[in-house]
Automatic annotation (TrEMBL):
Reaction equation(s) it catalyzes: (2R,3S)-3-isopropylmalate + NAD(+) = 4-methyl-2-oxopentanoate + CO2 + NADH
UniProt-listed NCBIfam families: leuB
Protein's UniProt keywords contain Magnesium: yes
Pathway: Amino-acid biosynthesis; L-leucine biosynthesis; L-leucine from 3-methyl-2-oxobutanoate: step 3/4
Superkingdom of the source species: Bacteria
Protein name as catalogued: 3-isopropylmalate dehydrogenase
Key word Metal-binding present: yes
Pfam families in the record: Iso_dh
Length: 359
């Protein structure tokens, strides 16, 4: 069976890291363990530059026909003054919403060799294996009304709306419980129910869904405490489920537990098998074009793509084992470099993973 993969390199370091991920996919196609048809299209600033839109209609058509999508990153300072609907980030939000990719899985796993690359003490992060389930197509990112208005006195006000419907909470809760069932059966739902009505509803619906999963130990935590607990004692968590914006923030924090934001992959899934796979980090304009970015989050996103959309768990595992091997050999991009290791660039890191896969 030939799988259709749409590749959206995007902006900044996007094209650099995606090129390395494609090298890894090519290992499998060359050895005959995978058959894919790859198409490339524009998203983000690249979409705006080439086609006048951060999510061009041509990209949308290809996205709807794809079995899976691999995305680099979007955004950059040159686009920051565009009208909001034309900004790169809107392209990313549009494709997530358009394909109803409501469930965003962000695993934070500490590879043993990177224990000393984390800014936290090795014993705090050793063996960390945490899954953040982030709601991705609702909440304050999409809620209406939104805008900046001029008030009667001539001053302006800006506003966004944090809104969740019961079905939106129900479906992300189910993904979280199912995820917990396949892991250590502990789920922590993160909210701000001490202040927000929307969180009160969130908590109530999560509790209700939880009745269907008696084997899962459910707990609730306020988001401020959760941020603190993540850096105090992250191994207390197995699966965390939370809203769009809280998940965005907590997953960047969790990334640092693993050594670098350059290590965290993600899968954005809908009710069917099609998914979008991307590193959780951005376009890193400060290092773009230097061949210095860590491609491992993108390479590990390919592993998630193989596992979740293509049903090729064994190939996904081979990638994860190869990454482990490369790190154990002391090969490091700058973001995860520690003394005594061999510092390499983006392409060399990709080549090292390819070599480990073939070896
Ligand atoms: P960022 O994640 O791009 O960068 C934050 C810091 O982490 C930078 O110092 C960067 O150099 C470093 N970093 C990120 N990825 C790295 C990698 N693979 N290897 C080594 N170092 C890495 O976040 P930012 O600077 O806040 O945002 C930059 C742009 O990216 C903005 O336009 C933002 O909107 C966009 N962004 C896009 C996505 C996405 O496409 N999913 C995610 C976050 C931010
Ligand atoms: C992410 C990013 C995006 C988000 C932005 C670029 C829209 O930060 O994927 O984490 O906030 O979801
Ligand atoms: Mn983010």
């Amino acid at each position: 069976m030939t799988h259709k993969i749409l590749v959206l390199p995007g902006d900044g370091i996007g094209p650099e890291i995606v090129a390395e991920a494609i090298k890894v996919l090519n290992v499998f196609t060359a050895e005959g363990s995978l058959s894919v048809e790859m198409e490339y299209a524009n998203i983000g600033g690249a979409g705006y530059d080439a086609e006048g839109s951060p999510y061009p209609a041509s990209t949308q058509t290809l996205a709807k026909a794809a079995d899976a999508i691999l995305l680099g990153a979007v955004g950059g300072p040159q686009y920051d003054n565009l009208d909001r609907p034309l900004r790169p980030e809107r392209g990313l939000l549009a494709i997530r919403s358009d394909l109803e990719l409501f469930a965003n899985l962000r695993p934070a796993i500490l590879y043993e060799a990177l224990a000393s690359a984390s800014t936290l003490k090795p014993e705090v992060v050793a063996n960390l294996d945490l899954m953040i389930v982030r709601e991705l197509t609702g909440g304050i990112y999409f809620g209406k009304p939104r805008g900046i208005d001029v008030m009667e006195n001539g001053e302006r006000k800006g506003y966004n709306t944090l809104v969740y419907s019961e079905p939106e909470i129900d479906r992300i809760a189910r993904v979280a419980f199912e995820t917990a069932m396949k892991r250590n059966k502990r789920l922590c739902s993160v909210d701000k129910a001490n202040v927000l009505e929307v969180s009160e509803l969130w908590r109530e619906v999560v509790e209700r869904v939880g009745k269907e999963y008696p084997a899962v130990e459910l707990s609730h935590m306020y988001v401020d405490n959760a941020a603190m607990q993540l850096v105090r004692s992250p191994k207390q968590f197995d699966v965390m489920v939370t809203t769009n914006m809280f998940g965005d923030i907590l997953s960047d924090a969790a990334a640092m537990l693993t050594g670098s934001i350059g290590m965290l992959p993600s899968a954005s899934l809908n009710a069917s098998a099609c998914g979008l796979y991307e590193p959780i980090h951005g376009s890193a304009p400060d290092i773009a074009g230097q061949g210095a970015a860590n491609p491992l989050a993108t390479i590990l996103s390919v592993a998630m793509l193989l596992r979740y959309s293509l049903n090729k768990g064994e190939l996904a595992e081979r990638i994860e084992v190869a990454v482990k091997k490369v790190l154990a050999e002391g090969i490091r991009t700058g973001d995860i470099y520690t003394e005594g290791c061999r510092k390499v660039g983006t392409a060399e890191m990709g080549d090292a993973v390819v070599a480990a896969l073939q070896g």
